[in-house]
Specification:
The chain has helices at 3-23, 34-55, 79-83, 85-94, 167-175, 235-239, 243-248, and strands at 25-28, 65-69, 100-109, 139-145, 157-158, 182-183, 191-194, 200-201, 213-219. By secondary structure, it is α+β, with helices and mostly antiparallel strands. Helix 1 packs across helix 4. The longest helix is centred in the first third of the chain and has 22 residues, at 34-55. The chain binds 2-oxoglutaric acid.
């Protein structure tokens, strides 16, 4: 890479890190290859339809809103979704070089979904006795849409800066309108990196097409939390990864290899 290009990348990573630290999220525009996302969507759609057929009546994230684990079979899984150098560099610089990915899931509001209550994800504090202790970041969610996400199909809304505030104060600031919720529309290929403790909510999908937003969660290696379902990785997918990539993946291993 020529040094000007490297310098530009360095600048842009520094800006993105500043945004994550300051407002709790950043968006990398047109970042992931569209064809990989389109292939993922094509392969995932029958899986999603079968899931909705079986579980449509038991929405688990509010009315007409589902979370389900993503498959690890390509092309639903692509190494680029987990090991993109620029994303990993940002995630590692916000946390550390030993981060692992431990969740791979999809949030799907359908027609009929509503505004969620404003909330944070993974809200259990590290130290129960000090819930408002300000700590360095130990988890980040990296998300991208399998479809274009605009105001008609329910973009996530995030309240900037609230990951750094005491929870009650943050909720009060959002409820009073002192801090506004910002919708985050995403084109196919855009990537949202967010601190799960920035207050946010899902918004209604008013279209007939499921709004699929997939997420890889990265955590510091010592952090454990299995509050969301994850699928296991099959042998073929596992063996196609380099040993360096395997070190980043903390998921159940289907064949116990
Ligand atoms: O899917 C979304 O836009 C947000 C969903 C969410 O925050 C949740 O279900 O906890």
């Amino acid at each position: 890479m020529v040094s000007q290009e490297k310098e530009d990348l360095e600048m842009s990573a520094a800006d993105r890190i500043g945004e994550i630290q300051g407002r709790g999220y950043c968006v990398l525009k047109a970042h992931l290859p569209r064809h990989l996302i389109e292939e993922c969507r094509e392969a995932f759609w029958p899986v999603l339809m079968a899931y909705l057929e079986a579980h449509g009546h038991e929405a688990n994230r509010g009315p007409y809103r589902h979370f389900l684990p993503m498959p690890f079979e390509p092309p639903c899984f692509a190494p680029e979704f987990f090991f993109d150098p620029e994303i990993l560099s940002i995630v590692r610089r916000v946390m550390d070089d030993r981060v692992v990915a431990d969740q791979w899931g999809c949030d799907v509001p359908l027609r009929g979904s509503e505004y969620q209550d404003v909330h944070v994800d993974y809200r259990r504090p590290l130290f129960e006795e000090l819930p408002n202790l300000q700590l360095p970041t130990y988890m980040l969610a990296v998300s991208f849409g399998l479809v274009r996400i605009g105001k008609e199909n329910g973009p996530i809304e995030i309240a900037p800066g609230t990951h750094r505030m005491a929870r009650a104060e943050a909720l009060q600031a959002v409820r009073s309108g002192k801090i506004g919720l910002q919708p985050v529309p995403l084109e196919v290929g855009d990537v949202l990196i967010r601190h799960p403790w920035a207050l946010h909510r899902g918004t209604p999908n008013n279209t007939g097409t499921p709004r699929a937003l997939v997420t890889v969660r990265y955590v510091r290696r010592w952090y454990m939390d299995d509050s969301r379902d994850a699928n296991s990785i099959g042998r073929a997918t596992w063996e196609a990864l380099t040993s360096e990539q395997q070190c980043v993946m903390r998921f159940p291993n289907r064949d116990g290899q």
